[in-house]
Amino acid sequence: QVQLVESGGGLVQAGGSLRLSCAASGRTFSIYAMGWFRQAPGKERELIARITWSGGSTYYADSVKGRFTISRDNAKNTVDLQMNSLKPEDTGVYYCAAKTIGRVQYEYWGQGTQVTVSS
User: Fold this and answer.
1) Quick one: residue 107, left, alpha or beta (phi over 0 = left, psi -120 to 50 = alpha)?
2) Backbone angles phi, psi at 89, to 5 degrees
3) Each residue's pLDDT tens digit, 26-73
4) In which band, very low, low, confident or very high, does the pLDDT at 8 lie, cut at 50, 70 and 90?
5) For 40, phi and psi rounded to 5 degrees?
6) Are 7 and 113 in contact (CB under 8 A)?
7) For residue 39, how far is the Cα from the chain centroid?
8) What percent of the chain stands above pLDDT 70?
9) β 10-13/113-118 pair status
């Protein structure tokens, strides 16, 4: 089992920045990749950024590319999401998730943290 706890959400004005952090515990050695998902009001949850646990390979959704940066600290078992130039459409609940080796789906999820961007 892997446990994930997010922190760092809040209210920010458009153009501002926030940094989300996800702390992983438990069987962290089994993690292949960590992702940040966003669920906007009335929309499905979508993957916005992903990083592999060992090699650090990253993926970004087009909607956040150039504004968000995902990073990991293997020693601390944390994955951060630096969000710059925030827009009102970035509003939503942000979830951290983990995918273990050999799995296609993300199996472990955090409780989510609310990000609200005011115009």
Assistant:
1) alpha
2) -75, -5
3) 998 899 999 999 999 999 999 999 999 887 899 999 999 999 999 999
4) very high
5) -80, 160
6) yes
7) 11
8) 100
9) parallel
Contact 112, 20 (CB under 8 A): no
- Residue 103 CB neighbour total at 10 angstroms: 13
3 near 97, Cβ under 8 Å?
Answer: no
How is residue 48 written in tokens?
Answer: 């916005």
Q: Which residue has the tokens 């920010």?
A: 12
Residue 99 tokens, joined: 């995918």
**C-alpha span between 15 and 23 (Å, rounded):** 26
DSSP letters, the chain, are: -EEEEEE--EEEETT--EEEEEEEEESGGGEEEEEEEEE-TTS--EEEEEEETTT--EEE-TTTTTTEEEEEETTTTEEEEEE-S--GGG-EEEEEEEEETT-SS--EE---EEEEEE-
What does residue 9 show for φ and ψ, rounded to 5 degrees? -75, 175
